[in-house]
């Protein structure tokens, strides 16, 4: 595991530990400071400074200021060697083991995106009582994806991470990128919502009982 990934994993551990401590202490809300996503302010989730002899390759150095952005649901955007993972919060014992081994449990990976999996992404205002700030994205087939955040800074931190590693706009015949506009996002979201409504209206199918 390269130094960048290890450093970010440690940062993720610190962030999740703080989040868990607040939950176990009776505060069910997510720490707003951790959601701020600012490196030079309280709550910033920045990788630890490298010590003597910790030389990074050019690619690693370019991404050394990447931070962990936490959604309203507690999912954390974490970079790895080939893309970005979305991690579910860990329990205390599981978190301690991950910090000791510098490896993330497969059970905690809620999603994974590699370079080119997303063709566009943006941050918009969401519904105040649901997702105050929303990170929207379009997949390879222009399917709609979204994540809710408590603050704009946290949403933009996740957007920055995706744009650096994952988002690659489709190109025309001349190789020029074709950025997605507001209309394309709106159409993709409309299709997503209509599909969700259709699925919600479908009757539950009971599984046949096994013969005794």
Question: What does the secondary structure layout of this molecule look like, with pairings?
Answer:
Layout: H1 3-24, H2 58-62, E1 69-70, E2 76-80, E3 83-87, H3 92-101, E4 109-114, E5 118-125, E6 133-139, E7 144-149, H4 152-165, H5 182-201
Antiparallel strand pairs: 1-2, 2-3, 3-4, 5-6, 6-7
Helix pairs in contact: 1-3
Quick rundown:
The chain has 212 residues and is α+β, with helices and mostly antiparallel strands. Helix content is 33%, strand content 18%.
Description:
33% of the residues lie in helices and 18% in strands. The protein is globular. It has 212 residues and is α+β, with helices and mostly antiparallel strands. Helix 1 (3-24) packs antiparallel against helix 3. The model is unreliable at 1-11 and 16-67 (pLDDT under 50). The termini are far apart. The chain contains 5 helices and 7 strands; from the N terminus they run ααβββαββββαα. The strands form 2 sheets. The protein has a 4-stranded antiparallel beta sheet. A 3-stranded antiparallel beta sheet has the order 5-6-7.
Unreliable residue stretches: 1-11, 16-67
Strand arrangement, largest sheet? 1-2-3-4
What oligomeric arrangement do these chains adopt? single chain
Shape: globular
Helix fraction by DSSP (H/I, runs of at least 4): 25-40%
- SSE class: alpha+beta
Radius of gyration: 19 Å
Main sheet characteristics: 4 strands, antiparallel
Strand content: 15-25%
Output mean pLDDT: 74
**Helix count, per DSSP?**
5
Cα separation of the termini: 51 Å
Key terms:
7 strands, 212 residues, alpha+beta, 4-stranded antiparallel sheet, single chain
């Amino acid at each position: 595991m390269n130094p960048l990934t290890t450093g970010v994993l440690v940062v993720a551990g610190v962030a999740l530990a703080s989040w868990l401590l607040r939950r176990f202490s009776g505060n069910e809300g997510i720490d707003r400071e951790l959601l701020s996503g600012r490196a030079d302010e309280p709550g910033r989730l920045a990788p630890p400074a490298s010590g003597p002899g910790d030389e990074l390759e050019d690619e690693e150095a370019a991404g050394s200021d990447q931070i962990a952005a936490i959604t309203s649901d507690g999912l954390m955007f974490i970079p790895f060697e080939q893309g970005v993972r979305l991690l579910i919060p860990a329990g205390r014992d599981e978190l301690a083991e991950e910090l000791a081994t510098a490896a993330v449990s497969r059970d905690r990976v809620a999603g994974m995106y590699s370079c080119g999996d997303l063709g566009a992404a943006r941050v918009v205002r969401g519904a105040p009582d649901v997702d105050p700030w929303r990170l929207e994205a379009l997949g390879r087939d222009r399917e709609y994806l979204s994540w809710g955040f408590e603050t704009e800074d946290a949403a933009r931190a996740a957007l920055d991470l995706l744009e650096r590693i994952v988002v690659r706009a489709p190109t025309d015949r001349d190789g020029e990128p074709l950025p997605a506009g507001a209309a394309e996002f709106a159409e993709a979201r409309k299709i997503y919502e209509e599909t969700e409504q259709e699925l919600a209206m479908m009757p539950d199918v009971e599984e046949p009982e096994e013969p005794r």
